[in-house]
Amino acid sequence: MTNPELNRIAALPIWRGEIEILPLGGGRTNLNFTVTDPTGNYVVRLGEDIPAHHVMRFNELAASRAAHAAGLSPEVVFADEGITVIRHIECKTLDEDDVAKPEYLSRIVELMKRCHHEVPQHLRGPALVFWVFHVIRDYAATLETHGSPYLAKVSEYLDIATRLEADIGPIELVFGHNDLMAANILDDGQRLWLIDWDYAGFNSPLFDLGGLASNNGLNAAQEQEMLALYYGTPPDAALLHRYHAMKCASLMREVMWSMVSEEISDLDVDYAGYTAENLGRFERAYARYLEA
To answer: Per residue in 54-84, pLDDT tens?
Structure first.
């Protein structure tokens, strides 16, 4: 947090009277703050485009507005280049243990389905596609350009990705959130909210399903329940195979996201530790996939 950032927030034309600005942690691609003025509480997000991560702020803004119109996300009250102001909601931020609880999992799956099918009804203007295998290949090129110490592993990943993409085959196209971390799901005591649309775009539902499971440590039984809730029937062997292929791809992308962040980000985040954590998750998921 620097004075120019605080000065920019303080100078926004939407405030009425005196304001209080406090840092809000948790962002890996943004700087986040809470702002209080006499009219209420707000969240301010500072972040420019990050082409290396396929994060384009026009897309994030359009998705955020569409998600609010669909009743899934808080209202965007102001936006300008590199800055977005969102109405603050008094709520509990979920953690990984919450996601696995039956009383939450069913509600989260319903929230996901509404994202997939209702948000695009309100989306306006250009929209992005988030195809994980394109992202993986692009990350590989970025890591090669930077001379990453992970290049030997990246070469192996490209071969694995080719196999996974073939095994997934044709897809249903929906509008994905594509970043289903527990911290992006809020509970206000009455309903759930979905926030942070940095990576939103058209995608297979299997990516959000695989991401929800891998980001939140769901076990095999919980994954079966999640798929049954989403599709309305227990998954057969073919769906499970395609699901596990996409789950592996989701984890590979998370690993490579962190590898690239090690090279390009100047945020105070332990990306090396995050890379190592997700490497372990990917290797376990891929071993399970090969045994199936």
So the answer is: 999 999 999 999 999 999 999 999 999 999 9
